[in-house]
């Protein structure tokens, strides 16, 4: 039969040129001198069928199979061999084609092979599988060299067995069994590994389960606690906030009342003191008047004594009573005239006094009116400032103007360690630098100064977890000042209009100075715009320069200026508060001053009115006295006319001097009486004033007492409000703290989550306490345990499942191995039996008689038993095969091989000089015997022996016409004989 139809080789070993060898006969002889490339044909077949061992191909590495060049030829970079098979008998059962071509290519550069079946690229394994299927492998009968023939008899029974394994098809099972054992070992390892893991998990699992159960219990309780406690805390905080607001309003109201009451008390106290002062004056005046009064009374007494003495003196010179009466009338008339004069003078003075007092009163009233107008304006202004201040205070306390993140940080300062405050809170700017600083520090005012970067990390976590906004932080431990170099500083300080470096112009506590050094050490403040331009040039536009008006030259030359509609509120607010407070103090003191002036004017007005009333009374009595005198004068004149028949017109000469003395005394007495009365009146006025003052003072005293009691009560109430407010703040902050610490929530974020209804507050609070106690009694909790237990348990179940899979696969593998063993035993036994059936005959044919058989060296272990050969050549008794000659050994081997071939035919056998040791007769027998197989097997025989050549159907000669390059040509027997002889 013809199995291999064609070999095409190019670049393989000595096939430097594309070489094709067609096989049209079942028995092909290949002849040629040594080294001409005959064996390279066999190598090419083995190589194309996937041979991987370079040693089997007689090389050191796979690159050795590529044509390496000759004296005339360059080396090649790739080798390619194609084998074309007739597959009409489906020797390759898996390939449903009548013709099958197998190609292997090898590339020297990449050292990689490519395989093709019928032109399609395939894997090495695909090639190896079909080679194994047809028995075309190196350990099979397909390729038999002289070496393997001679070693067959000499090798050990175990080595020899391999040939039978191959023939029995056991080799395939063995390969599969090896694979199955490898898999089994791997599975076993895997099982051990999984068992280790399972053991490890089993050790951990009970404790994790306990922890997980505890953690779940904790979680349930905590969730319930959180739900109700957050609701209660939110409700509490809302209540506290509301109450704080109410208290704040009450405080404002109370403060206003207190301050107005204080003012009232002050003004009343001043009035009281003023009255005290004027009372003292009055006392002094009274005592002075008293003394004067006593003196005048004495004086009048004296004058009266003098008059009596003068009158008695005069009476001695009286002639008669009529005369005396006339004279008396004259005197009295004179006296009345003097009195009248005096009264008229007094009245005139009183009227003039009254006019004067009235003018003064009007003057005071006018002044008081003006002052009251001023006071009114002042009070309005003060009220306006107070309300602005209230707004500013409220805004300052509410943090409303802060960014959300900054506000939340400041409001939770208690729970966040190391938060110091905003830049705005820490700095203080003098008014003259306000515009300059405001324009440069604006963006940094809300930066939050913190103790260190760890505190900042916690604060940022807090903002993140509460979604509570963001903020810029200045941690004191990482801030590094960015100073201007000292020579440059020196130059800047010398520049015209230089005011200072911004970081040095602002006031801040020494320990926070680094904040300013970090933010503003390269900001230079100058006087005016032109100065700024000059300094910018001087510093090569490297720094920020700002004028006192807030115009700026930025680094690299940009200029910012103009007028801001709204000044920087944040920076100015504190300043504005202190400015307003100062203004308010001044206004308060002005108000007091004006009020004092008004009060004093009111006193004067009151006093003037009283004085006018007194004068009016005095005028009344002076007028009455005048009328009385005029009436007395009329009576005297009448009497005089009756007595003398004349009008009263003058005195008698002789009494002139006495009368004159008396009249003078009378005049003096009248003056004194008038003065006495005047003093009396003045004293009365003063006394009445004193009474009124006393009365006023008593009233003031009791009012002040009452006011003071009220003030003290108000202050107590204010203090209570303060305490209440503090308490509310504390409660609010402790509730907020609890929200933050226990639930990581701000009030705002807590309010935004859904709230449980708290119907019965007392019951809810009891429940909270109970849950807290229960949670506490749970002790240490590992919350991760829930997830850990779940994961570990899943892992455990997963591995237990895997164990089952692996055990099942191990069992399957063991079963498969057993099956294979059984199958191998059956097949091996069969081949041995079959070969033993054929061997005696083959042996007898090749040896010309005798017999042979094969036996197991260990029949109890068919799978591993070696194979021995027992022979009896004709006429010889052989106990040891090694005693046979070389030719005999070959004959024994060939008879076994042929026996195998007989019972287990294979489609192609390549014999490489196997008959070399035989003598001519045996060669002839050998060649003839081969011919008996050609219906089942194709032979390719490399030979030097003529006997073999003569029996071949066709002969190819291998030559090297070009040195180092094999050329194959069909030749005739005669040529073959020549080549053979020549070799
Ligand atoms: P013998 O009758 O002595 O067994 P042979 O005819 O079987 O000889 P081979 O063994 O087939 O000869 O061929 C060997 C020849 O092939 C040698 O001449 C060797 O130089 C040549 N050869 C082997 N590999 C390469 C290669 N990679 N490149 C070129 N020539 C090679």
Structural write-up:
- Among the domains are: 4-159 and 825-982, 3-Layer(aba) Sandwich (Rossmann fold); 401-581, 2-Layer Sandwich (Alpha-Beta Plaits).
- By secondary structure, it is of the alpha/beta class.
- The longest helix has 147 residues, at 170-316.
- Helix 3 packs across helix 20, helix 4 crosses helix 19 and helix 5 packs antiparallel against helix 16 (656-743).
- 64% of the residues lie in helices and 11% in strands.
- The chain has 23 helices and 22 strands.
- It has a 6-stranded antiparallel beta sheet. Strands 8-19-20-3-21-22 form a 6-stranded mixed beta sheet, sandwiched between helices.
- Strand 10, helix 10 (453-465) and strand 11 (473-475) form a beta-alpha-beta unit.
- It binds adenosine-5'-triphosphate.
- Adenosine-5'-triphosphate binds next to helix 1.
